[in-house]
Amino acid sequence: MKGLFNPNLKILEISIAALAETIYLALLATVFAIPFAFVFSFFAARNLMPKSIFGNIIYFLTRTVSTIFRSIEAIVWAIIFSVWVGIGPFAGMLALMVHSVAALTKLYSEQIENIDEGQIEAIKATGASTLQIWIYAVIPQVLSPFLAFTIYRWDINVRMATIVGFVGGGGIGLLLLQQQQMLRWHNVGLIMWLIALVVWIMDMVSAKVREKLRDI
Question: Which residues have a Cβ under 8 Å from the Cβ of 128 and sit 6 or more positions away?
């Protein structure tokens, strides 16, 4: 406990570099997950899928795959990708991306299911195609909530990236593990305070941004 509350500032530069790597790792995972989750969410929304056999198959398949991938924790994905592509931030990014795709697909699709059906019926009455209905009746209603969910997911990914680093995902988590294994508790203390500071800042900023988006 004495070491944790007396951080060693000599490794501040190394720790900040590892922390920046963690933040960018989480950002890339979120950015790369957005297009996949965006597309999948339309097929996972019950109100957009036709009630035919083909529509039901697509809906249940998308939902099932999303649920399975989401139920597997990011740390397990990190272990899998660490073996596949090697230890490092790339493995951590892939792990967070896969988990983010599944999580955002669920959040996005549930938001789509809560949209105003009147706008969809109005666009249908003009003889619009399915794609046109999605573009002009669905997307304008969900764009703001989608942005809020995405920012919230980046916030979550920054926290998860630390844990992912413990199993070879790179970033500040890997540095924390190394210092802990060498019993350098003064260094561990510095890393822990830096993580707490960044998480607090991101939590405050993301909350403000999501609040602004809700007002749009």
Answer: 136
Tokens found for residue 4: 């944790």
Helix, strand, coil tally for the chain in percent (to 5): 85, 0, 15
d(CA 21, CA 89): 8
User: 165-183: per-residue pLDDT in tens?
Assistant: 777 777 787 788 778 878 7
CA distance 131 to 69: 27
Supply 163's token pair.
């844990």
| Closest C-alpha to 27, from 202, 167, 201 | 202
- Rounded Cα distance between 67 and 65, Å, is 5
Q: How far apart are CA 182 and CA 175, in angstroms?
A: 11
The 8-class DSSP code of residue 9 comes to G
CA distance 11 to 190: 8
pTM for the whole thing? 0.82
CB-CB contact of 144 with 214 (8 Å): yes
